[in-house]
Every structure is written in structure tokens, then in C-alpha cells.
């Protein structure tokens, strides 16, 4: 679970909401409840880590019609602009 | 009244009234002046209590008096004021009393904006009729966008505002900027291209912000272009429109899924705040924990309820119950088996007692006596029967002796048998010549042969009397 490489933050949040809903519905057998609880804690940990370590990226497409993406950060430029 | 003139032409003299009337007729019949467009700057603006507007239109060299009656100016979309450049549509008229011609204005627009304003209105009505502004078309924004597309100038304050806002709130995402010109003649085209390029990315964006900073109507105009409006309407991902300031409204705003008052507001709409997410996560933790501990508590309660059951509290009772049933079964067995046995025993004892009361010896003597008596009677009876039987036999033997046919042979009769003495021959027909016969006489038998050719048939049966 923790090592899922493709898990996005959005997926994690969705999954977490789903699990909390299931747990609160109280319909799961006890053993499954405990498993889901563990999973929810891992998801919370994952989300918190994502939030804490995240750094906003900015990618700028080139202005021309060409489809190649200019992978340059324009944050500096943008901040200095005006 | 006429006065001779130096050139000999007789001149016509008008009264003032006549002259003004001629001028009035002349001016008001000129088609160029009946409906003319005039641009100029407003000065000496007066909005009379009657509702009519009086002012002067002027340019660098000249001026003309203008009036716009209340019935007309009520429909104005702006408030005229001194120094404002306007374009007016109206007719030249003459005010007889003062000998003044002036411009009677039917409609008026701020200069430079008017034509655009009309296009704006027309396009808005058209797209509205097509249903492009319908609330049904509005899509919700993704709650946790991974990739946020932005179509705006690469160098303006807009991208910076968006960047800093999202960095502060939700740095988990990535901003993909599709640079575009946000004013000027090429702007609409570059805006549409920017949208298209965001759509065509291999890794698609979750939401798009399109916008620019504040400006005049002309500057914002690209966002009122039909091609931009239609591109926004066609977007496969939700679009947030953020054009200008709060008060600026563009067609793009109407078509977009969400309208943001400013680019910063757009960024806030697009991305959740991480504080909120932290709060949500804390909520999730406590809700999960609460749910699971609640479940556990429920199970514990059930467990302890079960343990409180008498059966589990006093396991000996289980044995007691069984013991009881054993007892019960035993009593039933006793009823079913022991009682009949006891009865049988009792019957046996009774029988013994009764037997004991009987005098066996006397009974034996009696029986032996009866047996002897019966044996004697039987022997006497048998002897008598034998004696009687002997006498009867003697009589019967004598009778049989008297009836023996062989006694007749002693008187000279014989009997003819066929050979072998199987059959007594009593007819001549059974005695053909050569037939061998046995002849029985009183003291023996001889065998003979018929020698005669033919016997004599005397006919009829021999009777006793014929002998």
C-alpha cells in the first residue's frame, strides 16, 4: 500500500473518504474493519507526507505552435515581471 | 417690402421669424442632418430635473449645443459626464425662439466602445439563445487537481498571482502555462491555441484557468470574441474564467464553468487549502478511529454479555442438566422395566403359595387308582370284543364255505377257462378250432384243444332249468 508508486494525492483522498464512509457505515466484519483502519492510517500518512514535501511546479509550453514542451521554470521570471 | 440693390436684383426681406423658419426647414430636410453620427467631447453637462440632458459637444476647434430628452437618455448604459468622449446619433434641429440649431440626440455611446459594446450584446444574446450559458453545462471543479492548466500571458501579474496563491494553498499540483497574448488583434487566436494545446497534452490537465488582469473594454475584448467563447464552451475539462477585476464581465465568464472575480480568486477556487486538507485528514483519522473503536467496543460488549450468560458463568449447570435428564430417563426405565418384573415376581410367589397348598400324594394315589381301574375295564372290554369277534368269524367262514363254487365241481361240474385261466369261457364263440383251453374239475385242471370244425350253437343262454 505504502509503496504504490502511482497513487496520486487525489486517489488517496478519494480512497480515504471511501474507507471512512465504509467504516462509519459499520457494515464491515471486524477483521476487515481493522484492515481498512490500517489502510486509512497509511493513506493519511501518505497524504500528509505529500502535503509537507510538495513543491509547486510550473511548466511552460512554448508560445509557438510546436507541441514540444519547454520544461523551463518561469517562476523567477514571473516574480520579477511587471 | 423690397429694397433695390446695387446689382439691380430686388432683394427679399425676411422677418426674423421667417428667416429662422427657412433655416429650420432647410436644415431639417437635409438627409445628412436628419440622422447623423457625431463624435465629440461632452462639456457643460446638465441633467435637468425634468430628466432632459443638456450639454455641449465639442472638439478642438468647434462646438455644438446638444440635447437628449429624458425618454431617450433613460436607456443609456453609462452616465455621461464632462470630458467624456462620445459618439452620438441624432438629428439637427432648430429652436426657433433662440435662433439656435442644436443636436437632438437619439442614442449615445462612449466613443470607441460603442461598436464593441453592440457586438458584445449581440454575441451574448446569440450564445445565450444557443444555451451555452446554461447552468446545466456547468461542471464541478476537481477537488484535488494534479495538473492545472493556465492560459494567460507568460509575463503578466496573472500567472504570478496564480502561482503564489496555489503554492501557498496546494503545492501538490503542477501548473502548466500555455502562454497567450491577452490583448491586441492576435490575442483571441493565441487564447484558443493555448486552450487547444492544453487539451492535447499527453498527460491531460484537470482544470484550466483562462484570464488576464484588469483593463479597458478594448483591452478585455479578446475574451469577448466568439472564437474564444466557443473554445471555452468546448473544453473537455472544466474552465475557470478570470478576466479583469470584479466589475468586468466578459462573454468568456458566461461560458466558463466557473467565473472568478480575479486570477487570485480563480486560483483559490481551483485548489483546496492545505490547512483544510490537514483538517480533513485529522477528521478522517478521528472518524476512522471512532468507527473502529466503536466497532471494537460493540464486540467487547457482546463478548462480555455472552460471558455473563448463566451457561458460561456456571458450566457445572450443563452437567446438572444432563444429570437431570439421566435421572429422568432412569425413572422412565424403572417405570417401564422394573415394575413389570416386580409384578411377575409377585405372580410367581402367588403361584408358589397356591401350589404349596395342594396335597400331591393324595392326588397321586387317586390318579393311580383311576388308571388301574381304567386299564382293567379296557382289558375286559377287549377280551369280550375278541370273544364276540371269534364267534362271528366262525359263522361267516361257514357261510363262505357253503358258497364256494368249487364244491359244485365235486358234483361233476367243470369250468372252462382260456389257456392260462384268465377268463372263464361261457360262449361257443370263444372256442374256435385249435383253441387251447384249461378245464377245471373238482380235483385239478387239464389243458385241452378244441378239435371240432364247428361247434353247435344252441342259441340263447343256458338256464338253470336246462341242466
Automatic annotation (TrEMBL), chain A:
<keyword id="KW-0175">Coiled coil</keyword>
<comment type="similarity">
    <text>Belongs to the XseB family.</text>
</comment>
<dbReference type="GO" id="GO:0008855">
    <property type="term" value="F:exodeoxyribonuclease VII activity"/>
</dbReference>
<dbReference type="InterPro" id="IPR003761">
    <property type="entry name" value="Exonuc_VII_S"/>
</dbReference>
<dbReference type="Pfam" id="PF02609">
    <property type="entry name" value="Exonuc_VII_S"/>
</dbReference>
<comment type="subunit">
    <text>Heterooligomer composed of large and small subunits.</text>
</comment>
<keyword id="KW-0269">Exonuclease</keyword>
<comment type="function">
    <text>Bidirectionally degrades single-stranded DNA into large acid-insoluble oligonucleotides, which are then degraded further into small acid-soluble oligonucleotides.</text>
</comment>
<keyword id="KW-0540">Nuclease</keyword>
<protein>
    <recommendedName>
        <fullName>Exodeoxyribonuclease 7 small subunit</fullName>
        <ecNumber>3.1.11.6</ecNumber>
    </recommendedName>
</protein>
<feature type="coiled-coil region">
    <location>
        <begin position="37"/>
        <end position="64"/>
    </location>
</feature>
<keyword id="KW-0378">Hydrolase</keyword>
<keyword id="KW-0963">Cytoplasm</keyword>
<dbReference type="InterPro" id="IPR037004">
    <property type="entry name" value="Exonuc_VII_ssu_sf"/>
</dbReference>
From TrEMBL, chain B:
<feature type="domain" description="Exonuclease VII large subunit C-terminal">
    <location>
        <begin position="132"/>
        <end position="449"/>
    </location>
</feature>
<dbReference type="InterPro" id="IPR020579">
    <property type="entry name" value="Exonuc_VII_lsu_C"/>
</dbReference>
<keyword id="KW-0540">Nuclease</keyword>
<dbReference type="Pfam" id="PF13742">
    <property type="entry name" value="tRNA_anti_2"/>
</dbReference>
<comment type="similarity">
    <text>Belongs to the XseA family.</text>
</comment>
<keyword id="KW-0963">Cytoplasm</keyword>
<comment type="subunit">
    <text>Heterooligomer composed of large and small subunits.</text>
</comment>
<dbReference type="GO" id="GO:0008855">
    <property type="term" value="F:exodeoxyribonuclease VII activity"/>
</dbReference>
<dbReference type="InterPro" id="IPR003753">
    <property type="entry name" value="Exonuc_VII_L"/>
</dbReference>
<feature type="domain" description="OB-fold nucleic acid binding">
    <location>
        <begin position="14"/>
        <end position="109"/>
    </location>
</feature>
<protein>
    <recommendedName>
        <fullName>Exodeoxyribonuclease 7 large subunit</fullName>
        <ecNumber>3.1.11.6</ecNumber>
    </recommendedName>
</protein>
<dbReference type="InterPro" id="IPR025824">
    <property type="entry name" value="OB-fold_nuc-bd_dom"/>
</dbReference>
<comment type="function">
    <text>Bidirectionally degrades single-stranded DNA into large acid-insoluble oligonucleotides, which are then degraded further into small acid-soluble oligonucleotides.</text>
</comment>
<dbReference type="Pfam" id="PF02601">
    <property type="entry name" value="Exonuc_VII_L"/>
</dbReference>
<keyword id="KW-0378">Hydrolase</keyword>
<keyword id="KW-0269">Exonuclease</keyword>
Amino acid at each position: 500500500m505504502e509503496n504504490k508508486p502511482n497513487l496520486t494525492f487525489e486517489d488517496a483522498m478519494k480512497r480515504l473518504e471511501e474507507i471512512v464512509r465504509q467504516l462509519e457505515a459499520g457494515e464491515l466484519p471486524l477483521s476487515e474493519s481493522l484492515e481498512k483502519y490500517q489502510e486509512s492510517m497509511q493513506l493519511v500518512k501518505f497524504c500528509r507526507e505529500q502535503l509537507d514535501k510538495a513543491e509547486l511546479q510550473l511548466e511552460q509550453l512554448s508560445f509557438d505552435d510546436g507541441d514540444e514542451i519547454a520544461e523551463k521554470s518561469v517562476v523567477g521570471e514571473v516574480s520579477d515581471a511587471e | 417690402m423690397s429694397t433695390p440693390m446695387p446689382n439691380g436684383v430686388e432683394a427679399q426681406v425676411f422677418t426674423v421669424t421667417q428667416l429662422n423658419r427657412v433655416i429650420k426647414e432647410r436644415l431639417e430636410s437635409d438627409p445628412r442632418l436628419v440622422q447623423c453620427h457625431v463624435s465629440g467631447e461632452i462639456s457643460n453637462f446638465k441633467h435637468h430635473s425634468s430628466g432632459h440632458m443638456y450639454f455641449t459637444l465639442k472638439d478642438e476647434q468647434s462646438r455644438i449645443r446638444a440635447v437628449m430628452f429624458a425618454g431617450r437618455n433613460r436607456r443609456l448604459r453609462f452616465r455621461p459626464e464632462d470630458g467624456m468622449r462620445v459618439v452620438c446619433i441624432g438629428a439637427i434641429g432648430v429652436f426657433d425662439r433662440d435662433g439656435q440649431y442644436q443636436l437632438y440626440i437619439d442614442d449615445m455611446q462612449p466613443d470607441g466602445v460603442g461598436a464593441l459594446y453592440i457586438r458584445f450584446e449581440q454575441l451574448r444574446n446569440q450564445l445565450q439563445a444557443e444555451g451555452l450559458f446554461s447552468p446545466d453545462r456547468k461542471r464541478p471543479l476537481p477537488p484535488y487537481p494534479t495538473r492545472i492548466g493556465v492560459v494567460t500571458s507568460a509575463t503578466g501579474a496573472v500567472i504570478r498571482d496564480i502561482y503564489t496563491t496555489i503554492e501557498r494553498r496546494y503545492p501538490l499540483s503542477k501548473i502548466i502555462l500555455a502562454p497567450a497574448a491577452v490583448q491586441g488583434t492576435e490575442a483571441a487566436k493565441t487564447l484558443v491555441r493555448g486552450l487547444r494545446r492544453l487539451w492535447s497534452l499527453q498527460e491531460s490537465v484537470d482544470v484550466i484557468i483562462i484570464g488576464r488582469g484588469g483593463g479597458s473594454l478594448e483591452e478585455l475584448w479578446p475574451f469577448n470574441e466568439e472564437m474564444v467563447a466557443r473554445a471555452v464552451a468546448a473544453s473537455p475539462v472544466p474552465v475557470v474564467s478570470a478576466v479583469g477585476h470584479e466589475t468586468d464581465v466578459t462573454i468568456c465568464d458566461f461560458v466558463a464553468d466557473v467565473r472568478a472575480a480575479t486570477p487570485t480568486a480563480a486560483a483559490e477556487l481551483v485548489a483546496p487549502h492545505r490547512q483544510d486538507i490537514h483538517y480533513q485528514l485529522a477528521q478522517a483519522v478521528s472518524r476512522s478511529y471512532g468507527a473502529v473503536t466503536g466497532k471494537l467496543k460493540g464486540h467487547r460488549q457482546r463478548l462480555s454479555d455472552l460471558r455473563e450468560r448463566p451457561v458460561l458463568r456456571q458450566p457445572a449447570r450443563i452437567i446438572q442438566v444432563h444429570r437431570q435428564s439421566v435421572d429422568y430417563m432412569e425413572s422412565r426405565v424403572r417405570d417401564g422395566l422394573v415394575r413389570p418384573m416386580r409384578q411377575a415376581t409377585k405372580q410367581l410367589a402367588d403361584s408358589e403359595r397356591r401350589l404349596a397348598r395342594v396335597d400331591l400324594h393324595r392326588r397321586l394315589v387317586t390318579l393311580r387308582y383311576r388308571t388301574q381301574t381304567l386299564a382293567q375295564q379296557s382289558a375286559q372290554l377287549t377280551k369280550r370284543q375278541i370273544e364276540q369277534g371269534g364267534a362271528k368269524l366262525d359263522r361267516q367262514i361257514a357261510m363262505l364255505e357253503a358258497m364256494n363254487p368249487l364244491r359244485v365241481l365235486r358234483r361233476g361240474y367243470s369250468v372252462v377257462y382260456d389257456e392260462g385261466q384268465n377268463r372263464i369261457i361261457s360262449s361257443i364263440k370263444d372256442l374256435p378250432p385249435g383253441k387251447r383251453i384249461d378245464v377245471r374239475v373238482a380235483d385239478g385242471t387239464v389243458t385241452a384243444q378244441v378239435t371240432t370244425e364247428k361247434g353247435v350253437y344252441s342259441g340263447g343262454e343256458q338256464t338253470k332249468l336246462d341242466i
